[in-house]
Amino acid sequence: MEYMLVLQWPSTSTAQELHLLISLEGQIKEGIGDHGNVDGHDIGSGEMNIFIFTEDPRATFERVKNIGSIPNHISNLKAGYREVGEDDFLPLYPEGLDHFSVI
Questions:
Q1: Cα distances (Å, whole numbers) of residue 20 to 2, 26, 73, 98
Q2: Is the link from the previous residue into 94 a cis peptide, with omega within 30 of 0?
Q3: Model pTM?
Q4: Contact 38, 63 (CB under 8 A)
Q5: What pLDDT does residue 30 have?
Q6: Domains and CATH numbers, the chain
Q7: Per residue in 19-59, pLDDT tens?
Q8: How far apart are CA 5 and CA 16, in angstroms?
Q9: What is the pLDDT of residues 80-100, one digit of tens each?
Q10: By CB distance 3.0 to 4.6 Å, which of 5, 13, 90, 91 could disulfide with 57?
Q11: Cα–Cα separations (whole angstroms), residue 72 to 10, 53, 67, 95
């Protein structure tokens, strides 16, 4: 079964945030190995997201949160996943997060 894992940070859509997002995406692409396939990013509506297709979203997230400079940006990170073809996301991170969505 394939899932979409989404890493999400708050954003005001500045050029600096876009550069950060692109940098984080590149680091994940290089470091993810066989744990998933990075499918791009978006920024706007108060958030910035990186999309990853994976068969095991929890294991992939555990791998991703230690890649490159991701640990430096974990304090305001949210993550969620959904089965490909479904609409509703399951919250994954931080612990206790009760709702996750992508605008």
A1: 27, 10, 10, 27
A2: yes
A3: 0.96
A4: no
A5: 95
A6: 3-77+86-93 (3.30.70)
A7: 999 999 999 999 999 999 999 999 999 999 999 999 999 99
A8: 24
A9: 999 999 999 999 999 999 999
A10: 5
A11: 15, 23, 10, 18
